[in-house]
Amino acid sequence: MAPSPGRQWSTAGPGRWLLALLAVLVVVAAFLPGFVPQVAPGRAGTADRAERVDVSPGATAEDLVPGVPFRGTVPGAALTADDRVVLAILADLQRFWTDELGELDTPTGGYAAVGVGATGSDVLCLGGDDTISFNAYYCHDEDGIVWDATSLVPSLRARSGDAGLASALAHEFGHAVQARLRPEMFDRDTPTLITEAQADCAAGAFLAWAAEGGTEHLRLGQDSMARALTPVLDLADPPGVDVLDPAAHGSAVDRATAWLTGARDGTAACWELGDELLGRSTLNVGGGVAGDSGTDPAAARSARSSDEIITAGTRSAAAFADRVGLGGSVDADRIAPEHAPGVPDVDTARRIGTFAPAAAAVQRVGFERIGSRPGAACFLGAWTAWTTESGWTLVSDAGLGSGASPGRDPEQLGTVPGDADQALRLLSREPGVRLTELSGFVTGFQDGYDPGIRACQ
Ligand SMILES: [Zn+2]
């Protein structure tokens, strides 16, 4: 998606900040964090005709979500095609959560589609002067879901497909369920990072159910799950956001980890997510030494060309592979072109950041040593952990290092906060990327070289 540059997102909703302060409650919970999202160029994954939303062109709101109040993009007029698609997905969400919980109290405030610039609408938690742009909210006090129908919905569909749109809606619906099951999540002293992780987890659980054919309207194809994950990768917090920031949604790795937890373990695991996330968050993890002691790693890296960074990444990956027992000769059959990851797109990588070109090179080394795309992604995750300070410590503790800087990346690429997100975003841009690759990266990164690297093979 391509939000307007410089736009500041507001979690509390414009015009509601004073009430939010007074009410001692988080009034709304947005899909996007309160910052300009980090968006990589291009469409996520590949187009897949199997992915669609099946809904009758004549279906009304009452047909799709009977008994739930609905305000369309054009109030009083017939549904727009996008309104119908959104309501069909919300109908699937109602069915999913009814199955999960036995019964579901549908949102009493209902659903509302609002056009950009539609001020004075006074819809749900949007005050009379508020606008909503490239976002969707669960409005806690009103118990309803509102979304930007003219920018958010079409841009999500264009960039991340119906799977990506479903992921965003499932996040907001997750907040509605959260309000029923875990109302304390809306207390002011509950870190937003946890509230948002639970909603991302709920979204992953719903998409997994859809992938198994549980949904009536949403149809997913082979690559849909990876595409469904891309909005949370694109719309994560940039480096610099504190884990206790009242608008924090987490890094891309944090959000992907929560989403994958739901997809893998189901909804029960979502409501268990709690304070441990604060210590596990990858927000601002990084900042390792590059070059001589005292050199700013960001400045040192910026001074190198992309070609130099790719060369350094390749050498660093080879050194890492040797350390973790993946060195030695490579079976040529394993790197047949039809199995290899796409040739690293240096232009794309460069636009993502200075770490991404190295990540592209490391992924290829991982493929050469392990022989599968998920294995290569996992290798990249483990290597990324290794290049961070925590990664060095792990290797060093295991006695694998030598010399004055045991286990340190000999190429001294250094790390800065946001590097792991760059590597994950690069993977998500690869044509035909599958969920197994994105989850492979997260596994490799979270577990580090051991046991993570063994899980890669
Ligand atoms: Zn949220």
From TrEMBL:
This is Peptidase.
